């Protein structure tokens, strides 16, 4: 009788599966390259930019979260090469953003995700006019949307996304690659 009891206890203990609590806190950073189109002093111009982003995400559950971050961008290679003959130089933008986050798990650690939210970016540039350089800073509310694919293993993850931001002063799109830590 005790043998049957011991086997039953052992099988019961082995049949219990461990359910890990999904991580709720994620910090990450993205780097990328893209283009920007902006309206300045009754004119329109465009160029390319290096993009960077740092963020904190709180996950309400496995598929939904809220992300707060800071994004910045500055002149890309083409813009730097064209700056000696351009009236508008030293173009950059940056500022805080807050976005909703939703993901769809694909398996093997992969997921598709999307995010969208509001931004408060400041567009900065230098305008050359009649030999004079004048610096401008223009801030406004805008929106941002992104879609991408991510892979995660335990506390580390990688992602690749397309990000689009628009406000009253400019619109910018680009591809970003990033890494994240979950805790």
What is the fold's blueprint, element by element?
Elements: H1 2-15, E1 25-40, E2 43-59, E3 64-75, H2 77-82, E4 88-107, E5 110-129, E6 132-153, E7 156-167, E8 170-182
Antiparallel strand pairs: 1-2, 1-8, 2-3, 3-4, 4-5, 5-6, 6-7, 7-8
Residue-averaged pLDDT: 89
Q: Helix- and strand-based class?
A: mainly beta
Number of domains: 1
- Secondary-structure element pattern, one letter each: HEEEHEEEEE
Strand content: over 45%
Ends distance: 47 Å
Task: Report helical residue fraction.
Answer: 10-25%
> What radius of gyration results from the CA coordinates?
23 Å
Domain Outer membrane protein beta-barrel: 6-183
Pfam family, one: OMP_b-brl
Signal peptide: 1-20
InterPro entries: Beta-barrel_OMP (IPR027385), OMP/PagP_B-barrel (IPR011250)
Please explain how this structure is put together:
InterPro entries: Beta-barrel_OMP, OMP/PagP_B-barrel. This is Outer membrane protein beta-barrel domain-containing protein. Keywords: Signal. Pfam families: OMP_b-brl. Residues 1-20 form the signal peptide. With 183 residues, the chain is mainly beta. The protein has one domain (23-182): Beta Barrel (Porin), CATH 2.40.160.20. It has two helices and eight strands, in the order H-E-E-E-H-E-E-E-E-E. It has helices at residues 2-15, 77-82; strands at 25-40, 43-59, 64-75, 88-107, 110-129, 132-153, 156-167, 170-182. An eight-stranded antiparallel barrel has the order 1-2-3-4-5-6-7-8. Strand 5 (110-129) and strand 6 form a beta hairpin. It is elongated, with a radius of gyration of 23 Å. The relative contact order is 0.21. Residues 14-19 have low confidence and may be disordered.
């Amino acid at each position: 009788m005790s043998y049957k009891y011991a086997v039953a206890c052992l099988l019961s203990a082995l049949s219990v599966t461990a359910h890990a609590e999904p991580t709720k806190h994620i910090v990450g950073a993205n780097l990328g390259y893209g283009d920007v189109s902006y309206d300045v002093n009754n004119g329109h111009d465009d160029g390319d930019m290096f993009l960077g982003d740092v963020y904190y995400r709180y996950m309400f559950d496995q598929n939904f979260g809220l992300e707060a971050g800071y994004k910045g961008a500055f002149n890309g290679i083409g813009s730097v090469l064209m700056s000696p003959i351009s009236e508008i130089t030293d173009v950059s933008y940056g500022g805080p953003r807050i976005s909703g986050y939703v993901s769809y798990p694909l398996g093997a650690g992969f997921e598709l995700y999307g995010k969208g939210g509001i931004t408060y970016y400041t567009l900065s540039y230098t305008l050359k006019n009649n030999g004079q350089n004048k610096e401008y800073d223009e801030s406004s509310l805008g929106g941002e949307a992104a879609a991408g694919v991510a892979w995660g293993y335990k506390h580390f993850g990688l992602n690749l996304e397309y990000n689009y931001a628009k406000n009253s002063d400019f619109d910018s799109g680009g591809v970003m690659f990033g890494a994240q830590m979950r805790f």
